[in-house]
Amino acid sequence: MVDEFRAVFRGHPAGVALVAARGAHGPVGLTVSSVASVSAAPPALSFSLGAGLSARALLDAETFVVHLLHAGSVDLARAFATSGGPRFTADQGWMTLPTGEPALAGAGVVMRCRRLHAIPVGDATLVAAEVLEVLTRPSGGQPLVYHDRAYHRFDG
């Protein structure tokens, strides 16, 4: 059943996001393909996290930044999806917000969020978050999509 379930979702395209926060030992972040809009009033979103170290550090953070990535961010998405990948390097374009969270200057969309709920579900955690600020808006660039274990440009 697990293999069947994974195969089904490999065939389901999803937008790609990078979630980042200030952790106890520095910035933490990871790539997710499960970001979804939950509510417009108040603005809220959700995503799921696995059980890795970065996920645990993100769950400990009260606030974090969700970046909706554009098609030019494939290398960044791969780096944050790979254990030990290069993260928070100067050439990736990171800055620190006045509130302390790390943020990507060149991301398609940047939203500062506050965790509302973290609900364990099987081997993952479902996170619901209030969007406190939309720091950048879509620039009209093509979104980055994850499908069948690969990143793709969406030319819709």
TrEMBL record:
Classification via PANTHER family: FLAVIN REDUCTASE, FMN REDUCTASE (NADH) RUTF
Pfam families per the UniProt record, alphabetical: Flavin_Reduct (PF01613)
Keywords noted in UniProt: Oxidoreductase
Coiled coil: none
SMART domains noted in UniProt: Flavin_Reduct (SM00903)
Flavin reductase like domain mapped to chain residues: 9-153
Organism: Dactylosporangium roseum
Gene3D superfamilies xref list: Electron Transport, Fmn-binding Protein, Chain A (2.30.110.10)
Descriptive protein name: Flavin reductase
Keyword check for Secreted: no
